[in-house]
């Protein structure tokens, strides 16, 4: 192997480490975002379930249901606010992971191409002898 190939291999290993780190970071962000979306969906389901009662409400029951609905609506709003604050970091982590993965892949292909070219040149030299 040539020095260039060795350097590309070292760069590829470094890029792979960075790619793995960014993928883990993105995975953690994704886990938090998915958990928050599931929480929001659960709250919305709970809110819808409050009013799907077929029995007639008494005044006291209506007050209780409205109080519960208000609480669930506040929790939903808070969760949606948290999610909207997470999304810019989530998108940045996704872009970083894609960039680092692409960099590692490009370096791998460059090294493979260079290795193939070096082997072909060596075979031509042997054939010319």
Automatic annotation (TrEMBL):
Give the source's domain of life in one word: Bacteria
Record organism:
Paracoccus sulfuroxidans
User: What's the name of the protein?
Assistant: Uncharacterized protein
């Amino acid at each position: 192997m040539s020095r260039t190939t060795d350097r590309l291999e070292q760069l590829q290993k470094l890029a792979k480490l960075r790619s793995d780190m960014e993928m883990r970071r993105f995975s953690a962000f994704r886990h938090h975002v998915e958990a928050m979306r599931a929480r929001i969906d659960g709250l919305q389901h709970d809110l819808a379930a409050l009013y799907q009662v077929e029995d007639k409400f008494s005044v006291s029951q209506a007050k209780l249901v409205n109080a519960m609905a208000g609480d669930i609506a506040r929790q939903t709003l808070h969760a949606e606010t948290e999610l909207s604050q997470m999304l810019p970091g989530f998108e940045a982590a996704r872009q970083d992971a894609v960039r680092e993965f692409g960099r590692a892949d490009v370096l791998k292909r460059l090294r493979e191409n260079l290795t193939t070219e070096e082997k072909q040149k060596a075979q031509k030299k042997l054939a010319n002898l």
